[in-house]
Amino acid sequence: MKPNSDETKTDMDFINSHLICKSSSCEFSVNKSQILKSCVHERNGGAFLEVHYVAERNTKLTRRRHQYPETLDKCLEIHKKIQNTLADKRPKRLLVLINPRSGSRKAEKIYAKRVLPVFELCEIQTNVIVTHRANEVKDLLMNIDLEEFDGVVAVGGDGIYNEVVSGLTVRELRDHGQDPDNPESKLSQLKLPIGIIPAGSGNYTAWYLNGTKCPVTAALRIVMGHCVSTNIVSLHQGNKCSGYSGLILGFGLFGDVMRDCEKYRWMGTSRFKVIPVGSVLNRRPVNVSISYIPTENKRLQYQEDFTIQKPDFLRLTSVPVTNRKSARDGYKKRTFSFSDTLDTPSEWKTAEDRVVYAVDTYPITMKPDGTRMTPNFGGNTLELLITTKCKLADHFRQLKEVDDGKSSCYDFEFVKKIEVQRYRVRVLRNKTEDFYLNCDGEVIRLEHPEFDVRLHKQVVQLYGKAK
Question: Other C-beta atoms within 10 Å of 317: how many?
Answer without folding.
Answer: 26
